[in-house]
Amino acid sequence: MKPVEKPVSCDIARGAPAVPRDLRLLAREYFELTKPRVVALIVFTAVVGMFLSSPSVFLPLGPFVFGTLGIALAAGSAAAFNHVLDQRADAVMNRTRARPLPTGQLTAREAFVFAVALGIASMAILALGVNTLTAVLTFFSIIGYSVIYTVWLKHTTPQNIVIGGAAGAAPPILGWTAITGQVHPDALLLFLIIFTWTPPHFWALALYRREEYAKVRIPMLPVTHGVEFTKLQILLYTILLTAATVLPFATRMSGWLYLAGALALDARFLLYAWRLYRNYSDGLARRTFGYSIQYLALLFALLLVDHYSAQIREALQSALY
Ligand code: HEM
Ligand SMILES: CC(C)=CCC/C(C)=C/CC/C(C)=C/COP(=O)(O)OP(=O)(O)O
């Protein structure tokens, strides 16, 4: 469990900052509002979507730069809205109580203004520098995560993260449309991979954090349906994920290099899910959650390397001979 380093303030309702402000610290708190590590992986999946949409390594510079920036700002905006809208539950759970709003480092008003500013900047950059389709789809992703998931689904149904997962799975589509202006079926495969990955990713964490979720009455699957059922769902979704990861090879979007690497990653994920199912421990659930993140990063890196394998081989050959 992460140690809580910051003092916890009760100033949420009054909206006043509880501690003196230092500009560097303040910048760090704002940065923290964007969930930077999550957003980094989200942006990576979007960038992979961009490269996979084109046979050339050289993407049109404007859509590439503005697309990446716009998607990153949108994801950061959605994350900041999530901090504002979930501040009461965040103040109670150990994992989240050191966040900028529960500690009083930032007020809800400051976080809200920041979220709106990032959202507007993202929309302006995407609409003016990329294309309308990407701006519109990104707008729906922001609403999907910050309103539909955070305000509604998260607090009403244990299927919250399955349905809400669509927003987190959208970025490869956004990357693809940023470059081509079209939603291609191959982009939907990338969406499907993240969509089926989200339940094992999140439920592994929800298992070892189940008491905290119960404390704040958030109906996550282990709280409403218990550990046994959640372990089974993780296993079933990991099997579904394995099937989804074969599709890029089956449709010839990706080649043998991708298939071999993806199956190796899948085998390890399935092993984690199987061991969790047979012999549960909080420690194993924590390691499964950690692996889920490595898994997605490596899988998307594989898609990219496989896509340019011919160019990489040629470059290596000309460097060697
Ligand atoms: C509905 C969908 C999702 C849910 C409910 C979810 C939930 C979570 C939670 C609760 C954490 C722990 C954060 C913490 O340590 O405080 C986490 C971490 C993480 N998630 Fe997800 N996640 C989802 C989708 C995604 C997506 C789409 C990505 C990337 C493509 C992603 C990448 C990550 C990463 C990289 C971390 C580690 C962050 C860190 O080290 O601080 N997640 N996720
Ligand atoms: C392009 C675009 C707008 C994408 C938005 C996608 C986005 C920011 C997804 C975040 C996924 C995530 C960390 C969910 C956890 O929320 P939670 O509230 O369950 O977790 P918490 O308890 O850690 O806050």
From TrEMBL:
Q: Main localization of the protein?
A: membrane
Q: Tell me the compartments it is located in.
A: Cell membrane
How the protein sits in the membrane? Multi-pass membrane protein
- Look up the record and name the pathway of this protein: Porphyrin-containing compound metabolism; heme O biosynthesis; heme O from protoheme: step 1/1
Gene Ontology CC terms, in alphabetical order: plasma membrane
Further remark, if any?
Carbon 2 of the heme B porphyrin ring is defined according to the Fischer nomenclature.
Q: Which family does it belong to?
A: Belongs to the UbiA prenyltransferase family. Protoheme IX farnesyltransferase subfamily.
Q: Mind telling me what this protein is named?
A: Protoheme IX farnesyltransferase
The gene designation is cyoE
